Amino acid sequence: MAKGRLLIIGGKEDKDGSTPDMEGKNKDFSPNEILKLLTVSKDDRIEIITAASSEPESMRKTYTKTFNEIGYSNFDFLEVCETQLHTDYQLKRVSAAKTVFFTGGDQDRIYEKLKDSALKSLIKEKYNNESGFTIAGTSAGAMCLPEIIILEAVNGEAMLEHDIELNSGLGFIDNCIIDTHFVHRARFGRLAHAVILYRHCWGIGLGEDTALLIEEGGHATCKGSGMVWLLNAENIGQTNIDSVEKGSPIYAENLKFHILTDGCMFDFKEKIFKGSR
Fold first, then answer.
1. Three-state SS across the chain?
2. Contact 224, 183 (CB under 8 A)
3. Cα→Cα distances 245→154, 160, 195, Å
4. What is the rounded CA–CA span in Å between residue 131 and residue 98?
5. What is the pLDDT of residues 199-236, one digit of tens each?
6. How do 210-215 and 219-224 pair as beta strands?
7. What distance in Å separates the CA atoms of residue 175 and residue 86, rounded to the nearest whole number?
8. Can you tell me the distance from the alpha carbon of 253 to that of 199, in angstroms, rounded to the nearest whole number?
9. Which conformational region is residue 40 in: left (phi greater than 0), alpha (psi within -120 to 50 degrees), or beta?
10. N or C: where does the chain have the smaller number of CB atoms within 10 Å of the terminal CB?
11. pLDDT at residue 51, rounded to an integer
């Protein structure tokens, strides 16, 4: 059982007043609510990895402003490049950190840079063995964390055979596939497709400005102003997934899902849902 915490965020989390629509419509909206969960104490060290982004400088500017507003006093940005990836300097910084936070961009870019690195092994070791250590990711930074990641898929009306591309992920958490911007970008079909292919995995569809905080390896709590969808294909009945021709639609019987909002909890080990009070 992992001793650390996993914070997976659906993207577009409130930072620098970036979610005015949610602020006006949802009475439970709380400024910077998600990012305040990154650490147990505001003095804890946070290492921010922007490797997924094509505009890391812009990311730095935004998160620096927001983190200062929250009151975080001990954070910096960790460069992940070939010349530094395997250095003691990088490993010492992560060793001293209580949180490693992956920002958004391209999930495959993070995976390709970290997949065989000592840095990845150290982060996983700390997550498994260090109480209070947090791995956090938003958007692509969340999608890259499990053992399987969605690289690309067509967001069409139907799920079509061969219209989804999956790859190995960083493997910080087993038995799940994560998708982000889930409601706003109409991604139900592609996550359903992924879990029908990998039925041992839960599909976690994260809404924007919404997160799932997973503790003790499986106790999850929904946080934020949107929704988290949990998809399960373990007990599907009839399906043509193994025989469908390329380009043809896929069907499936008995695909199950749960919808979580702020305060709802789910135990992945016991498969128990608990609604918010």
1. CCCCEEEEECCCCCCCCCCHHHHHHCCCCCCCCCHHHCCCCCCCCEEEECCCCCCHHHHHHHHHHHHHHHCCCCEEECCCCCCCCCCHHHHHHHHHCCEEEECCCCHHHHHHHHCCCHHHHHHHHHHHHCCCCEEEEECHHHHCCECEEEEEECCCCCCECCCEEEEECCCCECCEEEECCCCCCCCHHHHHHHHHHCCCCEEEEECCCEEEEEECCCEEEEEECCCEEEEECCCCCCECCCCCCCCCECCECCCEEEEECCCCEEECCCCEEECCC
2. no
3. 16, 9, 19
4. 9
5. 999 999 999 999 999 999 999 999 999 999 999 999 99
6. antiparallel
7. 28
8. 13
9. alpha
10. C
11. 85
Distance (Å, whole) CA 98 – CA 53: 22
Q: Which amino acid is at 215?
A: E
Strand-strand pairing, 99-102 and 46-49: parallel
Single-letter amino acid, residue 163: D
Q: Which two tokens stand for residue 202?
A: 């839960």
**Size (the chain), residues:** 277
Amino acid at 60: R
